[in-house]
């Protein structure tokens, strides 16, 4: 947590670079993450809080085979890295306040690190289409005691 520079908020370039660096270090140590006592749920995903303060929370998410999120955007910055397995990320474009169309799909494999900002067309869905668990680490710019999750709005898919 010390290396996450939040003094200029969790949208600043410095913060996002620091969060990405922390994630790159973590995805380079999959054995360490896999040894953590992480909660698992057949067919779904579980969020395991690893660390948090009033600005940032760090979670390990275990994606069972078939797990899927809703289609959503975020109220905060969301940096994540894939530790093991593959997470399929589909990007969407909103057509109104509640509906979105898929635009692009990418397989995020172990070692992948990215940051997503709340502003702009940043709507997505994450799924584990593989046959085994996938694990990812997420660093969100939200206080886990003030918000239940990073999700701002849920969308319904139109066409696909
Ligand atoms: Fe997300």
Automatic annotation (TrEMBL):
Quick check: keyword Iron in the entry? yes
Q: Which UniProt keywords apply?
A: Dioxygenase, Iron, Metal-binding, Oxidoreductase, Thioether bond
Extract the SUPFAM superfamilies matched here.
Answer: RmlC-like cupins (SSF51182)
Gene Ontology annotations of biological process type: L-cysteine catabolic process
CDD domains the record matches? cupin_CDO
Keyword Iron in the entry? The reply is yes
Q: Where is the signal peptide?
A: none
Q: Name one GO molecular function term.
A: cysteine dioxygenase activity
**Per UniProt, location of the 3'-(S-cysteinyl)-tyrosine (Cys-Tyr) cross-link in this chain:** 78-140
Residues annotated as binding Fe cation are 72, 74, 124
Family listed: Belongs to the cysteine dioxygenase family.
What is the name of the protein in this document? Cysteine dioxygenase
**Organism (species):** Bosea vaviloviae
